Task: structure prediction
Amino acid sequence: MKLNESVMELKMFLLVLGLLVGTGSPDMGSSQGKCSESLVQGPQTQENRTHTTHSKKPFPVLSFGYDYVRLPFEISLWVLLASLMKLGFHLMPRLSSIVPESCLLIVVGLLVGGLIKLVGEAPPVLESNIFFLYLLPPIILDAGYFLPIRQFTENLGTILMFAVVGTLWNAFFVGGLLYGVCQLEGHRLVTVDLLSCLLFGSIISAVDPVAVLAVFEEIHINELLHILVFGESLLNDAVTVVLYHLFEEFSSVGTITVTDVLLGIVCFLVVSLGGIVVGAIYGILAAFTSRFTSHTRVIEPLFVFLYSYMAYLSAEVFHLSGIMALIACGAVMRPYVEANISHKSHTTIKYFLKMWSSVSDTLIFIFLGVSTVAGPHEWNWIFVVATLIFCLVARVLGVVGLTFVINKFRIVKLTSKDQFIIAYGGLRGAIAFSLVYLLNTDHFPKRNMFLTAIITVIFFTVFVQGMTIRPLVDLLAVKKKQETKRSINEEIHTQFLDHLLTGIEDICGHYGHHHWKDKLNRFNKKYVKKCLIAGERSKEPQLIAFYHKMEMKQAIELVESGGGSKLPSAMPSTVSMQNIQPKKPPQDRALPQLSKAREEEIRKILRTNLQRTRQRLRSYNRHTLIADPYEDGWNEILIKRKKMKELEKKISQMNNYLTVPAPPPDSPTIARARLASGEMAGKNISFSYFYPQAWGLKSATESIPSIKVDLASPQSPESVNIVDEIGMKGSQPKVSEEGGGLTMKVPSPTKPRKDQTTDEDNDKEPQQRLMRCLSDPGPAAEEEDEDEPFLH
Amino acid sequence: MGSTNSTLLKIPNVEVLMQETGFSPAHIIRLHDRFKALDKEGRGHLCPHDFGAIKELAMNPIGDRIIGAFFSPGKETVDFHTFVKILAHFRPVDKDRPKEPNSPEPINSRSNKLKFAFQLYDQDKDGKISRDELLQVLRAMLGMQVTDEQLESIADRTIQEADLDRDDAISFEEFRKSLEKINIDHKMSIRFLR
Result:
């Protein structure tokens, strides 16, 4: 029950809090602790846990040595708290549908901070270097690696306009007007000079990628708007970095000259392009490295993460834009790395990135809350309110003005609804906070006031704008993201249209978007892919890769769903059925449906046996990944399937094998009984199974060639050995192997992916048998040969 | 603007052309210049050989089809009018045009753009993209690196996905339906032709 769960959640939360505060308090001393490196500071006080007494005391059976683990323990505790909070919110769906996660997390942070303060300790503050070095990169890498390149490049001009011109406009508008207000206000604010105001303006004007991601991900807005706001938040980092350093330098010097301004512009170009170049270099290195990882698949994801992180750090060394480096690295390496790495590594990368970015994101918001309680504040009504108003006004004016200019150059224009969402989605977040935190109090005596103002703006944008954007999106009926995947039709026709438009552009003599894209693609195919993609994959056209991915995905879905009555609409099997009997009336469509249903049932039966067979898994060496035929063998399966189809065509004349009407779908028990009794063996009923999970059976009459496709190798833990479970007709149960069940034998690889399948058995299966229904599980002897290569 | 006017006057029926296609005079002139540049022998019309001289078009996998689209069946030459009319398909759609109920659909409407693309697939002009025609296109786009089996399986799947009336071919309506999610206005427009 939901109520019980929330109560349990609350209890867990309190427990963790208690632990945290309890462990924290003896250690956190009295200081504000700004300068230390650890997350939770506090000099050692009088606590000494290892007593050295002079009197004789008995041997300590149990002692307490907390200092030894203090730092990692507390870090883990914070991360645990963050994760539990995340868990908790999703257990309360009503709350999480109204309030975005980021708001709830900030509130939690406030609570925790308040609690810590109540206890009397100083709450930890979000250290800037921890934020920039550890918390920010995962989020940016996650965003950059999965950046939709196509939309990004199509809208690049718009994004750049918003990022560069928009941020500059915001910075100067806010900074300038604030200066004016400060001057007008008089007594307390007059000390704030122009440079400080401009610096403050530049910090606060940048749209924050973390906040944007956090909010926009929940509202599922259409891709165009998403990429516009998100792209802007990423690219404005360069502007922010340059302006920040510029004004910081100037504030210590005191005066600006025209040369300085020019140098500033040059600096901007250096920072942004330099960051991109650094990122691209590391990306190419990563792609190149991944070319050679076919034998050490376990550490493939590590290369991706390491190279990206190094790109970020290298860019930061030279004060280049680390964010842009990270994005460039991820975007550049992705197509090549994905062509090289295994399916499992791809999944690992995806999930690790999502996990880290999720944890980072949660921690950032919680710490924002805690820092609000902790940080030194100086509240000044006029300044704060003025800041808030100017930020909003600047954003709206900037977006409207820029859209007016941009729409002259766009084919698909931005409507006023779009403009509203773009303006409204300009959220500020933790980056601004950290940047202010880094300010030197000597140069900026009003730093605390800045801090307060920034926190207020952040809270306002995250809470008010974050909470209201979802109902507003619904109210304005903004187009939402289309959930459906691309169909092969769309893929083919899109490529066709690309070629068409390139051709037309050539005829017109116009070197437009398509022309350059085509040139880039050609260059890519000719030179780059050869270097960076291993083996034969480099020649694989994109369409083929897409098609295979689609088929693979569908096949895996089918296997995993096992028993789902809803089947994907475009089944290869129905295709083959259609092709075999093109003239048959629609009644034949019943045939594959029924066989599918039966198939699913049997699969379900076998799957339940999987639990028992799991115990028989041999211990494995954790350094060797058992080659999973699910990923590497699928290509062969697909080719085999096509061959089967052709064979079917040839045999289609033999009526007794293809046109027998299927018996009605049985319940699992009946199916089981039927199998057990081998009832089918005698009949000449056969279905054609074109799924990977069909098993080949020895036909009673060997004269008919048939195709046998088995699934998963015996070693794969997911495989279920039919032979074992049904155990009939004298086939010995394969107790020696791990995992019984459906065994897939990987047929001889016809696709030239030999380097990928070296450790699979390339046993040639010359016979092709027509697939029949399941009675005799068939010979299991062939599976034996697959044992050896896998384990070493 | 003396030179533009004089150029415009040289082109016969230029007003009709501008009305039909929606191009502005500046565009017509630009296209006329391009036409003249392609028409190296100055005959006033283009033949396939002139198109073939465009280097990048030769490298385009469907280059020959595109060239073929300019020549109406039976005709060996392309005059300026036809040239402009074909290119008018790729003008960005004018969203603000008033919709007169009796006027014919503009050449650059979404539907006409799709029809143009459809005709490029459908070489034998029977109104359907048969499996063979699809295979030809796939073979052209994918080159020699792909085996016949793979091509056929892709073609099969494509037809199976799009084919709603089960006639093993893709009609124009099915073609249009399969592309309904794609922003054709964007994908089939060349910006400078606005």
The radius of gyration of chain B is 19 Å. Chain B touches chain A through 56 residues (CB under 8 Å). Chain B has a mean pLDDT of 80.
